[in-house]
Amino acid sequence: PGHPPNACPFVERRWWSLGWCAVSSSARREESCLAVSSEGVLEDEERRRRVRSRACVPLVARGRSDKSVARRRRSARAVSWMVRPLQAVVLLDAARWVWGQFQFEIPQSMFEQLHGMPGGQQRRSRGERAPSGIDEAFGWLKATEWNWNSWRNVRFGADGRFEAPTPDCERGQCRWSADAKTIYVQWGDAGLHRMRANKMEAAEGTVLSGKRTADGERCTATFVSKDERDEDLDLYEVLGVDDEADGKDIKKAYRKLSLKYHPDKCRGEVEVEGEEKAISCEKMMNRVNLAYEVLGDEENRILYDTGGLESVKEGADDDGGGGMDPFSMLFGGGRQQRGKGKRGPDARVELTVTLDDMYLGNEVEAKISRRVVCRKCSGRTDGKCASCGRCPNEVRLVQREMRPGMIVQQQEEVASKEKCKNEETTLKANVERGMDAGAEIRFPRMSEQLPGQIPGDVIVTLRQKPHPRFTRKGNDLHMDMVVTLKEALLGFSKTFDHFDGRKVVVAQSKITKPGEVKRIKDEGMPIKDVPSERGDLFVKFQFKMPTELSADQKLLVDQLFLA
Predict the structure, then answer these.
(1) What is the C-alpha separation between 289 and 34, in angstroms, rounded?
(2) pLDDT at 400 (0 to 100)
């Protein structure tokens, strides 16, 4: 801004017969910067006019001897002759160019200082800070397109995003905000710009003018058009529901609006709350359909909440773009593999429950702490966004030109433009009758959130607390029962309370041996998925022996067992 950031710093200057000019790697992404002809003249008059105030970096130092200069001039003519049929584009990547036997290196810091790239002092904006939101007075500026400094078109998004054809804005590092009188544009590495409008409307003749706060360089933008995109819509507002609404409320609102804007009932244009102009019924119907398609699907809704409609579209592209499985191609197959989209990792937690819960079935709460994306908090620090902080860096695919005609995709870690916070979430685990330790309960999409990513699942693994009476082995229950010597010899009938409150009778009419186990059918654990059936109960008898005998008792026992 002032001059477009990272645009080519051309100037009409010749070095020998070729007009070589150093071009940074970020400038290379914007356009083919330097056309070389046999006379070394920059052929694009418009480009030369646009950037006369910037100086090229000479690749050849002055003060050479005449022979040295002549030798290099001949080499330059040779290079010119070779590239003449191609009208080649010279791009210097990482500030390095090898010419014949000579290698010229320009330090990255020199590029930064000359062209205002990160690290150069002229682009650092200090002191003044922009407000976090957009004042109502500048609602007309949302979703508008402007021509910046007679350079290229930029866009003020409805959600505070500032879109420009520069690498930093493509990485989501550009935003705009406004107070009652002033517009603030935070243009990535270029820093903060303060601007004012000559009139408060999105119409022909409206001009934004101001300067960059770092160095006072002037900048202007002229109105081009206003066109609200799907990405600018708040789909919850389209359906007229709260962002905490459940699926039933969303479906109910969709049915109501689909009847209202149906082509058979609505024709022409209608007034919509929050819109400056009337909107056609067809356009409103399209908005309602779009809102329901996104919010009516759980995964699409999460993508929308965490990354906007752009993330939903990216997820659809990932799911739909399956390619050929290379192994199938090698070994005679032809099956298509379907992409799974952007999905985060699953999280595993353990939940301890009682044996009573497993026998009777119960709903047990489990509390977890997880990261969530703060919806509509990008660039805001007030209200519900006050507790939100910075989200982790995001990894995106970007295109890199390795050399002319060769473009590769690389992963790049960029700062997230969204905000996140840690919140405590309560999961209600439905423990079904007959579940065993180690059973898993899955909570879809309840893991930690990242912008533009479908969260993974939370997998809860059940662990059983020890029970004072029963031990579980599969679907069977085991317990110990203590009997006296008299009961062991003469028989007995005992009862105990089961988990469901029933009285279970354990009877023995014969002599009970130490360690003997009695099996009682259908008194074990309910069988999962078949709760009408149960396992068995195994009762192991333990003897309670007297600690001592009197003389008469000893005599009586001796008489009884005389034989």
Answers:
(1) 48
(2) 72
Residue 9 has pLDDT above 60, yes or no: no
Helix (H, G, I), strand (E, B) or coil at 475: coil
Give DSSP secondary structure letters for 142-201: TTEEEEETTTEEEEE-TTSBEE-SSHHHHTT-EEEEE-SS-EEEEEGGGEEEEEEESSSS
SS3 category, 337:
strand
pLDDT of residue 318: 59
Strand 347-353 with 458-464, pairing: parallel
Residues 319, 312: Cα–Cα separation, whole Å: 11
β strands within 265-324, DSSP E: 269-270, 279-280, 323-324
Element (H, E) at 441: strand 440-443
Question: Are the C-beta atoms of 261 and 281 separated by less than 8 Å?
Answer: yes
Residue at token pair 């957009």: 134
CA distance 117 to 111: 7
- Of residues 51 and 426, more confidence is placed in 426
Which tokens belong to 527?
Answer: 């069988």
Cα–Cα distance between 28 and 93 in angstroms, integer?
8
Instruction: Tell me how long the chain is.
Output: 563
Sheet with 152-156, strands from edge to edge, namely 162-163, 152-156, 144-148, 218-226, 207-212, 191-197, 183-187, 174-178
Residue 359: predicted pLDDT? 95
Contacts by 176-181, CB closer than 8 A, 24 or more apart: 176/134, 177/130, 177/131, 177/132, 177/133, 177/134, 177/379, 178/131, 178/134, 178/135, 178/137, 178/138, 178/141, 179/131, 179/135, 180/135, 180/137, 181/137
Relative to beta strand 419-431, strand 389-390 is antiparallel
Assigned token pair, 34: 């330097």
Q: Compute the average pLDDT of residues 159-180.
A: 86
Q: Is the dihedral of CA 328, 329, 332, 334 positive or negative?
A: positive
